[in-house]
Amino acid sequence: MNNTSIAGMKRTHMCGQLRLSDAGQEVTVNGWVDRVRDNGGVLFLLVRDRAGIVQCTFDKSVNKDLFDIAFTCRTEFVVAVRGKLVARDEAAINKKMPTGEVEIIAEDIRILSKAETTPFEIDDTKEVGDQVRLKYRYLDLRRPSMQKNLMLRHRVTQVARNYFDEQGFIEIETPMLTKSTPEGARDYLVPSRVHPGKFYALPQSPQQYKQLLMLAGMDRYIQITRCFRDEDLRADRQPEFTQIDLEMSFVEQDDVIAVNEGFLKRVFKEVLDIDIQLPLPRLTWREAMDRFGSDKPDTRFGFEIKDISDIAANCGFGVFKGAVEAGGTVRLININGYADKFPRKEIDKLADFVKTYRAKGLAWMKVASDGSMTSSFAKFLTEEEIAAIKERADMHENDVLFVVADASEETALVSLGALRCELAKRLSLAKKDDFKLLWVTEFPQFEYSEEEDRLVAKHHPFTAPMDEDIPLLDTDPAKVRAKAYDIILNGCELGGGSIRINDPELQQRMFRALDAVAHPLTGDARVLGDLGQRKVFIIIQVEQLALFFRERLAVKVEQQAHFERFAFHRRASLNSVKCFAFTSNVIILPYICRGVKGKIAENTNFVHIIYVCFILPMML
Q1: For 357-407, how does the pLDDT look when each residue is reduced to its tens digit (9 = 90+)?
Q2: Residue 68 — φ and ψ, nearest 5°?
Q3: Are residues 63 and 84 in the same domain?
């Protein structure tokens, strides 16, 4: 019976850690057979563990029994090898391997476990389908790239814990089985055995708990935590993921940014041995959108967006002029030095690309290396207008301009922002080892929701506005900027946060601003529905309805009705609700939202009510 015990053959070194400085030592390595090379009377086993690969040499003329055992080894056999580490002959040095200057002259080998032929090679250079990789995940995780990722993650979390501990943060674990609260995505629910019919929710983030910790005086909290969000998959988001979650008290935005910049500097140095210069660049949200068409700009390459709306406003090209007259914009990017890479066929494909971002089309102008110009719109412009566009775009020979005109500024910017990134990818300009970090600050406090036909909080309604913008909450909320900030790396959002409102009066003003944006509450009803659907939605303040309810609750209910699911706010919706009808034509529907409690009448169960909807059929 073969001896498969590790006793007496425990490793003294990891395979990938052996170097020329270790030559002359007796070493033992444990790992998997990566490759077998039979060179006649000499056999080479390349043994792999998570640290790397080392070559073990078996000479038949020296020890035939040992050679015969090694000869039975196949890839992915688990072995233990003991021998003397020696320097390789100069001609045998493999500079592609970190251990390529040394080899182990084997004195003993033990096969700890045999393996069948694997369904794919454990080799990063081999293409393997995702389904096969996931089916044999334990084999996939043996690949050096996967192990490198896991070890990289380990190093990052270790650096994070050490750094934030030095900065006075306390690591606190928060519950995983929680009460469901409105957040940005759907919750994953876990049924309770003890309480039939009731469910726990898995946390989308430790949001409520870390606020409790701040209220409890913990001051600085950190947690490397799992988060769960039942939402559509994205390239950078899984249903469950891990984030470094932190919260701070008694600070301003610059304090939070400084702490996180220090962490980034530490982790880049200790994990990747890369020095980053502090402070990191900052862009306001407005500047990021205007220059890069994205609130997470990739600054590894140029192709910045330019505004030519003033030039196009009175030009002879109807597409440009019409966009400006409609309150929109005309923007362009200059792909400088690459005009020869974009024949007409490729440009037509790019036009299809920007249409996926709601742009209606893509205009272009190209100057060849010999100075000749071709364009899809130049014939409609004067020489002066063409010259002005070239000057604004800083256009030279072998440059090509791509132009988007749209009545929506957002559409023009976002489509060109996506196009500049796509072109940089096709031209191989975005280098993976070029790390460009920056902050994006001063996000809008509100954003317009086409679905709801109203402004809603861009981040959340508890984000503090910029001090100088507070007066605008009552007069022009769309112009209010938030104390919110994102950290961006090469076009990817690494993280973000905001300063929270700590003044109850300011918080109430924020809620009132959100209300006023949706429907100005002056005591007059506002029509929100589509008359073609024979329905009108009227929103009135609860305070104005209190008296109405007290009067009507004494009236005999003439009819009861069920209403289908009705969503009026992205964070609140109603399942089929049993509603009270006080006449045959008027139905009162409660609109439920978190945040503010209001009790309309003592003998009703309507709590957490901010508004009540009256649905009046136009069939009176």
Answers
A1: 999 999 999 999 999 999 999 999 999 999 999 999 999 999 999 999 999
A2: -65, -40
A3: yes
In a domain, 164, yes or no: yes
Same domain, 171 and 99: no
Residue 609 contacts residue 590 (beta carbons within 8 Å):
yes
Task: Look at 533 and 350; give whichever has higher pLDDT.
Answer: 350
- Are 423 and 326 members of one domain? yes
Q: Tens digits of per-residue pLDDT, 238-269?
A: 889 999 999 999 999 999 999 999 999 999 99
CATH number of domain containing 182: 3.30.930.10
Is residue 541 classed exposed, middle or buried when 0-12, 13-18 and 19+ CB atoms within 10 A define those classes? middle
Beta strands of 210-281 (E only): which ranges? 220-228, 240-248
Banded model confidence at residue 613, pLDDT cuts 50, 70, 90: very low
User: Is 86 within 8 Å of 24 (Cβ atoms)?
Assistant: yes
Which two structure tokens, joined as six digits, stand for 507?
């918080």
Q: Is 526 contained in some domain?
A: no
pLDDT value, residue 233: 82
Could you tell me if 165 and 248 lie in one domain?
A: yes
Report the C-alpha gap between 326 and 550 in whole angstroms.
49
What mean pLDDT is predicted for residues 556-580? 31
Looking only at Cα atoms, what is the longest distance across the chain? 108
Best CA proximity match to 55, nearest among 25, 26, 83: 83
Confidence of residue 197 (pLDDT cuts 50, 70, 90): very high
Domain termination site, one of 113, 139, 161: 113
Please indicate, yes or no, whether residues 257 and 155 belong to a single structural domain of this protein.
yes
Given a cut of 50, is residue 80 above it in pLDDT?
yes
Those residues whose C-beta lies under 8 Å from the C-beta of residue 18, and which sit 6 or more positions away, are 27, 29, 54, 85, 99, 102, 104
| Residue range(s) defining the domain that contains residue 370 | 301-430
Domain contains 155: yes
Query: What CATH number corresponds to the domain at position 53?
Result: 2.40.50.140
Distance, in Å, from the CA atom of 453 to the CA atom of 337, rounded to the nearest integer, reads 43
pLDDT of 516 reads 53
Report residue 48's pLDDT band, with 50, 70 and 90 as the boundaries: very high
Within 10 angstroms of residue 524's Cβ, the number of other Cβ atoms is 9
Please state the separation of Cα 549 from the chain's center in Å: 47
The whole-chain average pLDDT of the chain stands at 84
Q: What is the DSSP string of 359-402?
A: ----EEEEE-TTS-EEESSGGGS-HHHHHHHHHHHT--TTEEEE
Whether residues 173 and 82 fall in one domain: no
Total domains in the fold of the chain: 5
d(CA 128, CA 122): 10
